[in-house]
Amino acid sequence: MASLTDQIDTILERLGTSFLLSGYLPSALFLGALALFVLAGAPYPLVVLPVAPADQQATGTISSLLNILADAVSALLLPILLGVLLMALNTLIIRLFEGAYAWEQLLLWFSIRRNRRRVRRLYGELVELKVKYTGYLADTMDQRLSAGDNTQSAIAAATFPHLIQKAHDRLEQESPRQTLPRREASVKPTALGNAFAVLEEYPYERYGMDAMIYWPRLRPLVEAEYGAQLANYKMLLDMLLNVAFLAVLFGVICLVLAISYWAWLPGLVAFVAWSIAYASYQGGVQIVYGIKETISLSFDFYRHRLLKEFDLPVPADLQHEQALWLQLGQFLRRGEGFYHPKWEAPAMGEKGSVE
Question: How far is CA 21 from CA 26, 224, 238, 242, in A?
């Protein structure tokens, strides 16, 4: 018969390292703190465990062993059950910290307003210039400019890149690291939500690729090292957000104790718990920026593999490639056949125009 240690090792191997770190460990810490500070051991217990009379305490060795075994099984199984629940609620917890729910946006309206004001100040000029420049490129590609507009076209071709370059130079001096999306519609009330918005914005700004549509299709095509790196990042993100979530919950319980007993010690414990939650949350935000770098590299290096999977040629220049990704994205999103790219883009290294 295998020992208890071997059985535990087998269970953890089947559950995986990801569950151990991001599900089981935060749950075990939470339940341990709950038992230590709240249930029975604290000076201000939430639940007072009954103590048997002295004449009933000595009930025999077998009963004591059974109690010890029951406690050990509970200490092992309860964190597993709570960890499984956390893994099942993973998407909901991430969206909670993103500030994606309508009730959060109502409560944090002032944060959204502040972030949008900052986005307008930082990126308003750049976004406006890029919209105008994109419109000019679309007109050029569709050959809608008349022969008499050649002078205007030449001026626009020389002016827009210069103005956009100046806007980028100003941004790099004022805000070297992008922490907010450039478009107001993508702004979230929390730092985590804005970090994810910046992540999703990168492939669209560079290549016209909607990350929500293309990333699930591109991920199987990237090299294994990138996939392993992303898996590690995701495991750390889940662990930190689960710690933050449970620490906030534990702090609320301690605050209830502090108010109920009018005592300072549970209030101090609540402050420590919320400090841990804040530190874990900020660590999660930094992890998202690490995920952004890895996903950005994946789009930079492997997006042409995705074109081959769709049996589409690689365009000769970036403008044609952006148009191709936009059209293919409309097809994938809406499903209508007329959205699918019907023109044959000039392949890399070949001369030709879009038909």
Answer: 7, 22, 9, 10
Average pLDDT over residues 161-188: 87
Neighbours of 109 (CB within 10 A): 11
The residue behind tokens 């000019």 is 136
DSSP letters spanning 219-267: GGGS-HHHHHHHHHHHHHHHHHHHHHHHHHHHHHHHHHHHHHHT-HHHH
What mean pLDDT do residues 297-315 have? Answer: 92
More confident residue, 9 or 188: 188
What Rg value do the Cα atoms of the chain yield, rounded?
A: 28
Output DSSP code: residue 145.
Answer: S
Q: Specify the residue for token string 């993103």.
A: 98
C-alpha 319: how far from chain center: 29
Residue-by-residue DSSP string for 136-170: HHHHHHTT-S-GGGHHHHHHHHHHHHHHHHHHHHH
- CA atoms within 13 Å, Cβ hemisphere of 158: 5
pLDDT at 338: 67
CA distance 120 to 210: 22
DSSP for 45-78 reads -SS------HHHH---HHHHHHHHHHHHHHHHHH
pLDDT per residue as tens digits for the range 144-161: 444 445 555 555 656 878
Highest-scoring range by mean pLDDT, 135-144, 191-200, 320-329: 191-200
What is residue 151's predicted lDDT score, i.e. its pLDDT? Answer: 52
Residue 216, both tokens: 């699930």
C-alpha closest to that of 235 among 89, 17, 14: 17
